[in-house]
Write a structure and sequence with these properties.
Blueprint lengths: L15 H35 L6 H23 L4 H26 L3 H24 L7 H24 L10 H24 L1 H6 L4 H24 L6 H16 L1
Helix pairs in contact: 1-2, 1-8, 2-3, 3-4, 3-5, 4-5, 5-6, 6-8
Amino acid sequence: MRSKMALPELNFDHHFIIKQRLRIIKLLLIEISESISVLFLAFTLIIALKHRDNNLKLITIYIVVTIIYSLTDVWACIFTPTNYKFLSVLYNSYDILEFTIINSFIFSRLRSTTLRIVSVLCFLFYFLMCYIDFSHFHFSNFTPIMAGIGYIFIAIPSLLLIFEVLKSDLKTDLRSNPDFLIGSGCLFYYSLCIPISFFLGNAFFANNILDIAPYLVCLTYFFYAFLIYTFIRAYLSPPAKYSLEMLFKTERFIVNSLN
């Protein structure tokens, strides 16, 4: 949910009233996009509760956390839009939770020791960057660039998960493989949000693209819709289709039989 990547402060000129109205329209566009995404998440949560799958428990937790965050964000932007300290703490907290939950899910699905080590290194590098950022600035000072760094360290493990599914010997329909679906959704969404985050986090570019910044933020919601779609497909996929789980169970059975 990306309303937090949002708008630099406006420098008003003599067209004050017109710019104010345009600013309100753009902010409403972002809030409407976020509200629609919350509805989609609520629909996904209903599907998750109906098709309960322990393998997707962390994804369900992520959906619940995101719904709570989004509702809080909408409320704060409407009733306390100038409380930047609260909004920054909210955005930073959600970024850390988002990173932790998504990467924990991916780590739980990886089976290769090497790939799991790489996933752990992504954890460590991200929290190291958080420590450096918050020690120089403050937890109540949100920076889109820091969000972009988090997306990098989500996209890398997502690629590893896809790689592990593709290199497995077990035949499976990728369109109904939950690991592949979620890995693809995360790789697609977070990879595309990386350049937008760095773009909006750069003061020079942010000041020069002020008019299109809200549309870039809304574009991230379009990307996010695909991520939600992959979650829905994953929940609706038969649990028996978990290729990696079945592959390693089969391998262990064969090894034990030979021994």
